[in-house]
Amino acid sequence: MGPVKAVKPVRSTKPVQSVKQHTVIDSPYGALTLVAEDGALCGLYMTDQRHRPPEESFGAADDGPFAEAEEQLTAYFAGELKDFTLGLSLNGTPFQRTVWEQLRRIPYGETRTYGELAAALGNPAASRAVGLANGRNPIGIIVPCHRVIGASGGLTGYGGGLGRKQRLLDFERGPALF
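Predicted structure:
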């Protein structure tokens, strides 16, 4: 999987108005709201998700820009897709985008600790900052923040709720062999 492309802001003498659209799809984990900005996926939010932006910021309801995202999510939930190949618009600080890029490198069915992610970024003392950036991930599941666990191996915060996090991890690990 390649690196996440950072979206640079457009500079102009006139204000630039981006176009946002959204749709809601069903999933085994409840309704998912997909949000696109200028045609690129910029949000995937669960019902009652912490740090979920207000509904009025999602733009007009329109299924048009979401066919590929919906197709890949359907394949993921069916256990047929392990790596998403969608073009994403990750809007956040440079540090947040770097953390989110590291999240995309965690293989399907595996986990990493906040400390391991901080070390991978070259700053082992930044585990708390990594946790804060992880919690602000705007594209859950596709940018797999659910794959990050505490240093003790236990589940820690998840914007979609710890129950969903456990279910996603169990799903990716597959059925027990005994």
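Summary: DSSP finds five helices and six strands in the chain.
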